[in-house]
Design brief:
Arc Repressor Mutant, subunit A; mainly alpha; elongated; Rna Polymerase Sigma Factor, Chain: A
């Protein structure tokens, strides 16, 4: 599956053909597209929306399939999907922001054996907007201009959110 995802992200001819068939209403192509996109969307939404990741993933997949006919360039599938998934993850996380002040006061211990749990805990402390910028820039590897375009905010806003998100993240470890 990972090989198929990597091939699909490169915009190969097979993925383009699947998208074109899905745009024409081919149910089997839509099923193939679902298999191809679901892991990527789930990972992206989970990183941004945290505990609301499954809800965000579901909302993103619904939006993707409702708008599949609007995709003008099938070879740009993964960039288009990334934009939709990011927006949905931020929207769902902001809507469902359930972090209590008690949770914010708990700082994980540096050097813990449960490093991934600690990282997720720190990420959960960030607002969805800060978390989205951090994930897109530092995990997905996008440049500030691309993050700006995806989130539909000025580059200066991306820079300030990234600065704050990194500062909050660093403080949690000290």
């Amino acid at each position: 599956m990972e090989d198929r995802l990597a091939q699909g992200r490169q915009g190969n001819d097979e993925t383009t053909a699947i998208v074109l068939r899905a745009q024409n209403g081919d149910v089997l192509a839509m099923d193939e597209l679902l298999d191809l996109l679901a892991p990527y969307v789930s990972r992206l939404c989970g990183s941004i929306a945290m505990q609301d990741g499954p809800d965000a993933t579901q909302e993103a997949m619904i939006a993707i399939f409702r708008r599949i006919r609007q995709l003008k360039e099938p070879s740009a599938l993964f960039g288009w999907v990334r934009a939709i998934a990011t927006r949905e993850a931020v929207r769902v996380a902001a809507r469902n922001n359930r972090i209590s002040q008690a949770e914010l006061a708990e700082i994980p211990q540096p050097g813990s054996a449960e490093l991934i749990v600690d990282i997720n805990d720190v990420l959960r402390r960030l607002s969805p907007e800060h978390r989205a910028v951090l994930v897109l820039r530092d995990i997905e590897g996008l440049d500030e201009q691309s993050v700006s375009h995806l989130l539909e905010v000025p580059v200066g806003t991306v820079r300030s959110r990234l600065f704050r998100a990194r500062r909050i993240f660093r403080r949690a470890w000290t």
